[in-house]
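Dissemination and training. As part of the outreach component of the grant, students in the summer workshop were shown how a complex can be specified as a set of sequence lines and then modelled as a single object. The example used during the hands-on session is reproduced here so that future cohorts can follow it. Participants entered these lines:
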Amino acid sequence: MTQDIAARVSAEELGRFMREALRRCDVDETAAEAVARALLTASRMGTDSHGLRLLPHYIRALQGGRIQARPAMRFTRRLPATGYLDAGDGLGHPAGYQAIERAIEMAEETGMGAVAVGNSSHFGAAGCYALEAARRGYMGMAFCTADALVNLHDGTNAFHGTNPIAFAAPVAAGQPYLVDMATSSIPWNRVQQYRAIDRTLPSNVVVDDRGGLTTDPHTAASLLPLGGADFGFKGAALAGMVEVLSASLSGMLHGFRLLPMLGEDMHTPRGIGHFFLVMNPGAFVEREVYERAIAAYLEDLRAQPAVEGREVLAPGDREWRCQAQRDAEGIPLDSANVAAYRQLAEALDVEPLPLT
Amino acid sequence: MTQDIAARVSAEELGRFMREALRRCDVDETAAEAVARALLTASRMGTDSHGLRLLPHYIRALQGGRIQARPAMRFTRRLPATGYLDAGDGLGHPAGYQAIERAIEMAEETGMGAVAVGNSSHFGAAGCYALEAARRGYMGMAFCTADALVNLHDGTNAFHGTNPIAFAAPVAAGQPYLVDMATSSIPWNRVQQYRAIDRTLPSNVVVDDRGGLTTDPHTAASLLPLGGADFGFKGAALAGMVEVLSASLSGMLHGFRLLPMLGEDMHTPRGIGHFFLVMNPGAFVEREVYERAIAAYLEDLRAQPAVEGREVLAPGDREWRCQAQRDAEGIPLDSANVAAYRQLAEALDVEPLPLT
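and obtained this result:
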């Protein structure tokens, strides 16, 4: 959100461009739609690290063969509430939306449904999939491994990915309760941004290559788990939970063994694992009881007094506010985004984004 | 673990005392056994805040009528994978173990099972219940609300409880992967301990009564969520997830509205909500695939180099080590514990603990 704004584009036009660019790489309509939907969801809500900036990366991975344009996805319902989706080394986004869809179908019957996904790839923001469940009236959770960027507590080097936890719960009169958080304090691209502008990082979020605390983005070698040097055992434990759910339950490699997302090799599939869980609130108490309880909770939460000059928000509130603003004003692109999308348009012979 | 050690007792003798003391308060055998099991599990693992020190509190709550000695517990299986347990204002521990039992039964059939528990009371350490699932070969999760001790991000006052997240995953050759963490950096009783010995608290974990950072235990009015003043929105979001799962899904009051655990009123039931989730790893991939994957993950984790003078551990490793030591040497009591247990023995006419 601190980027330079070089131009703006409507969500509609951006979606059109994304779908066309992906179709040029032989991606089928459903998959192209899923990628556009996930990236637009993130870009509209202000999660710029997981929005439109990722498209050029996905295109490179498709062109290199790391990601299959026409994967043989295969879902197996193993028990009434559980299933496994083999994503066939395709795009992670259609895999994620299909997993949520299957989990919802199972939750309809049994109250809950969960799907482990294997042989997948980067799926954008985990929150998109949890949110999809909440939009349909279910609680949703989504987890994913990623390559090593975050230290263990008291470790010298990166071991876990930024392993996100996403949780969304439906709210009858209003937007869902939406958590989508990395289990590190900051994302790695924050370090890269601060390097570029030579800005000091907050304390207790990164370490140098021997595991020592630093605030210098140039010597920062890896991230600390949430909780920092003193309480990072909690962030690391959560990252490990995400790892066990996403990698062990899908039989995929854990983050430390994954090929790096931004490495040289754009040919070898990474074999990412995800995990999705859906619950029907009405399967525990009467739907109205749940709806009253969460509404009362959020009402109390939003009424709490704030520290001078700050504001108390429920998770997601900042994102819905950003979404309303961007739906009105357009989605911002920085100068690097503008150049990357111009290049894509030329290379793939897609009508350029109409920027304003 | 920094307590003064006034005496030690074997887990066996301590369990015998707990069961007898509870039986004197008209608690039935199954419930007394559940309380003893949960408190011993915590005391053996070194989680002293949730171990033997809680028995006198439970006895007071039973004698005051806040907790029913003979509750009418009622389980309803609402859908194949979900259920609701009305704990009848009884002890939280038998409710917790029964909920895990039911969830395991459902997971046997459908791959997963979850139980929301309402009209319950304090259940000790959340980890006990997740651990029980893991001991039986399942993944377990446990969540619970508590009365307000932790601020929202940028809030001036306490709103959430220390809302724990517990997660345990079975490991074929070894102890389970076990996370049991409050969503604040430190527990409130750490503040009380530091007050007593006039010791400065770590920075970024507590605030004064206007929400300003302090390290003085005497002016500390509430806890910050995990992540501290800068990244506490993550800890607060996790606490909120726990609140929604435990309170909204059980139709109970959220933490901000709960009667305080240590308040004057020992007569009115508190109406605590818990939430338990069990999954069968073999319901997603073949059991052996899961077992190999989690073993490989933990092997890599434990082999990571540590910062000078520290050690890299998997969540739970410290606890298993403590348990082995305490099983050999006995469970330590500080002087306050010794006095409290002597008093209980007299008041309830139970044979005193044989202390060494």
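Chain B has two domains: 1-64+313-356, 73-185+224-303. Students were then asked to discuss how this feature might be tested experimentally.
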